[in-house]
Please model this.
Amino acid sequence: MHLKLCSSQMKEDSNSLRERVLNLFKSSRGALTQKHFEKEFSDVSLTTILPILNALQKEGMLDVLVNTDRTLSWQLRDQDSTEKLKSLSDLEERLVYNAIRNAGEDAASLKLISSETKLPQNRIPRILKSLISKKMIKEVPMAVGHKQKVYLLVELEPSEKLAANTLFAGDSGVDAEFISILRTACLKYLQDKAISASHIADPLERRQASYVSCEEIHRFITNTKICTVSMTVQDVQCVLEVLKFGGELETRITSETSEQSTSFGILYRLATQTPSVANLANIPCTICLCRKDCRPDGPINPQSCKLFQEFLEF
Model:
């Protein structure tokens, strides 16, 4: 009888500790290291927590990550992506999906997927196409000069270091079709905003209502799914700046002051007079995200830029 009570008590303690561990993961929303557990569970030894972490990993609830200093960290898996993984019956699709999921917002290249899954590279494109058709992953164009693309889960947005890449695709450099779609979408939204504002009687309020932020336009384009390619706020801002340089838009600076700091933003609206010709907007440098690294004696330079040469010839 005493042994049964002890066994029951141990099981109850284990379940309680399991809940504490899961709650810690949910509240932290990130990877946890050994130091996190030692700090948060000062009343429990790490040797007691490790079996629970191993059990959660086997259940598919945790991912184990190897840090640069060769220590381990644990991260709670997104349940939506876990359910999607379980829904895949094809083993190779599951391997590829899991490799892309592990890459997170940094995305996974064909080479990385092949390395993670041990599948030959010539077999992976078919699997990627299948996962894209199932709306489980999406592709993001690589930087200028590269033909390959990288892949990430459909619900994720590219990380900062990938943000610039969506404006570029293949050997041709700037993805003209993508920019054209963005340009049309931006102008359409701003035109609708101007029409809506024109019905306001007060001139000051009418002027204020005609301005929109870059983030607002980005939300509109994202929600309406105008672009099938992954897009960032920076992409939209690049196009808006081109339209501004071409005289089609005008801007004003806004500021917001808090107790700690002052932040500034840019609002856009249709220009009162739109010129018929805007040569400045055609300069490729205005939308080239490599312009900060472009210099006469550098690896990226105006002399070898095909887009700039074509502009000069035109």
